[in-house]
Fold GrpE protein homolog.
Amino acid sequence: MLQRTAFRAARSARVAGPNLQTYIAPRTSSPIFSELSCRSRAFTVSSRWRADDAKPESKEGAQGEKSEATPGEAGKQDAAAAKELEKKTKEVLDVTDKWKRSIADFRNLQEQTRREVTAARDFAIQRFAKDLIESIDNLDRALETVPQEKLTDENKDLKALHDGLRMTEKILMSTLKKHGLERFDPSAESEKFDPNKHEATFQVPQPDKVDGTCFHTQQKGFILNGRTLRAAKVGVVKNS
């Protein structure tokens, strides 16, 4: 019933024209008119909302077209990125090279320090050993001056003294050997002449010996930890 009344009122309003407001005004409190008014407002708001939503899409589309339309800028960005990458790569290679060189220098320094420490330890007694060599030579000469035929039971005192000196020399040389100092006699084993260890004082022919060998020792030599401390003075065979 109410719907029919509203329909008749709307048709009358189209016919009445200017008198529509005066006719509808009393009916504004009707639920039907309220519902129609709300629907009209909702339609208007919805239309405006859709129009507003359409604008950002058009903007995004324009931006997409703009970005697609400028490939030159993308190429410039790629070139700049490649240049920056090349620069960083060179920096990494430079730092790596410096790091490797530093490690090599450090290892060389360690090796040099180790050699210096070893040399200092091995040859710390070099000066002392040189001063001691003369005393050893004198002790050796004293033992050689006593003829073997006099070392009999008839000369017990001389024999005891000689044995004591020989024992002292043996203990002394054993102690020096512990510290790297050794005495050598080239003629005892007929060594080949070595200019690094021997000093030739004379040369004579010896048919029964090999040419260039040491057959006589005037003064024994000494070696300190593999290094010649004093060369032995020897006579060398020369047959030709």
User: Anything to note?
Assistant: The radius of gyration is 59 Å. The beta strands are 181-184, 198-204, 214-219, 221-224, 227-230, 232-237.
